[in-house]
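Fig. S4 source data, part A: sequence.
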Amino acid sequence: TATAASTGDPRSRAAPASELLPPRSDDKDAMRTGSRRWLLAVSIAVQLLLGLLTALFEPRKLQPAAAQRRVHMRVHAKTVPVDHIEVKLNLHHVVINRLSNRFTCVSLDFWPAEKCDYNDCAWVNASVLTANLSDPVLVTTMRALSPLTLRVGGSLADLLSYEVPGGQNARCVPFELDPSSRIGFRGGCLPWRKWLALYDFCDAVGCEIIFTASALHGRTPATCPAGTLCRQLNATTRPACCTDWSGRWDPSNLRALLEASAAANRRPAGIAFGNELAGSHGIVAHLPATEYASDLLLLGDLVWRIWPERPPALLAPDSNFDAEWFAEFLAALFPNASLATSSSEAQPSLESAEPPQNSEPRSPISLVSHHMYPLGAAAAPELLYKGLDARKLEWSSDRLKLVARLVANYTGGAASACVSEAGGAYNSGQRFFSDSFVSGFWYNDLLGGIGKHGHAMGCRQSLIGGRYALVDLRSRQPSPDFYSTLLWRRLMSPKVLRSVKGPLGMRSAANMSEVDEPAAPQLRCYVHCARAGTAGVNMWGGVVVLLINLASTARHSVHVMMDGISSTSPRLDFLLTAPRGDMRSPSIALNGEVLTAFQNGTLPALPHVQANGSVIMLPPLSFGFFVFPEAAARPCFTELQMLKAKHKVAASADASMKHKHAATSDAAAYWTSWKGGKGKSSTKGPNRRRSHRSVPPS
């Protein structure tokens, strides 16, 4: 104590005796009372101050997003709907787009088992080069989706060489890990026997192949300083040498493969030129637009020489969308196309997606292809919230509109847009999201947007491999998104109808000028003609309405308005929900029944629920397909139905004429008999309000 006091520090001075003694009981009570009053006063003042500051400075525009995030945080809980939103959905007898007949499309990628993202290695035995194409699960699921398109390609396609019979190929070596490469691998070779096996597989299951050809053969990658790990660097720290390539494209190896294929009577339905090489958005390389377009024209000449009667469709640039690069690329391909303004609803004819005949003008490209991963990187922890965010889904719609409009403007209708790769979240998808029920919200919405906004098709990444696979070879079960794809294949025809969503009091305009209103922003709606090939779906101009409810605590009552749909119209409901309310479930429930495939690959039945009426009740966090098989939608009549309709109209007209003729003859006979009986006429004639058996007026 003496030492402390000698320092002169007031905090260490000796305390007086009165301070060292314990306080008396009455002193304690007084201290407690004063302390409580002081704390209460401070608490009230703080609360008032916080309330005032919140009212004055909190940005109102952030409140809905915050509220939405709080709602999504409760997505796993079993919530009771507290809101009931009524919506009117006007359907019009107008086709706004027609998809390709094989608009169902899945990808088979080249990634080897060593492909790992975020310490998750999900590509074991899932590569084009190693997959067991005779696996009964794979065969059964593909047959169920047929006829469909199988896209064979991906990021490693530009590194591949092709083994051909009788060629001077070196030993066909597999891919090898290479962290100095931008893509993380080097080498790779497609064996001839595997190339033929892909065609045998498609013959067995009913698919056509779109093949991604290498656009980098002949080009030389730049040399980076020793120790540069391009794969591990991000965009801000990655040097230009990681994506710089010099030289020109060499088509010789591809020519040998295609000529050998033609000799073996094998022809791909389409050829995509490279994968994600467009400018600064490229992955392996950043190619200039005009240079890429020049090489694509060489590919077109090559394909036409090998298959002059029916050449494969050409797809390009198969990259992430870059408006400036795409515009420059299309301007180089279509220098004489008219840059006419077009709306998002008036898109080019999709007939250009079919192989052209010799009598038709030759187009340098059939499909302008782009990739979409609207949810960003698979590492994002908030992926579930993004997948349920109406604003994020609307961003995808805006992107589709922009691409379709640009393609229409620059090609003059000679080519169509398509999404050749879509997996939700890039880098293999995310476990417990991409392979779960919640993935169905973004996926079904994107498929609906592809049809609604002028695209020819959309291809899912991937069939097998990654967390976004439609078929999980480890569990030997299809993913929830597979069943969505299957329902699209069975129910939805290529014809897309115009539909307008709005509040219940919205009026239909005679000229169809009404547009979607901001009512029920968490309800997404798409309408197609019902597919004629599925029994019971299109009985008389049938339509299918796809509804997606992103709200976690609100159910929607959707009043479907269309001539031919009434309160007694038959309806087939296919409602999809999360089993036990678990949004991250690897399963999906159809009308309350969990869908489970057998281990031999046999798929479960997909029964509907029979309903009636034009009002659809959609529960929170659900989506579904609602079929009106007798909607009498004029664009949805099959040829047979149109023939029957013409016969009905003719029979009705004939019956009407007979009725008029009989009535006229009856009236004439009555008038004659009346005149004959009275011997006189009347200027008034018979009273039409009375029966002809009544006494004529005097």
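Fig. S4 source data, part B ends here. The radius of gyration is 34 Å.
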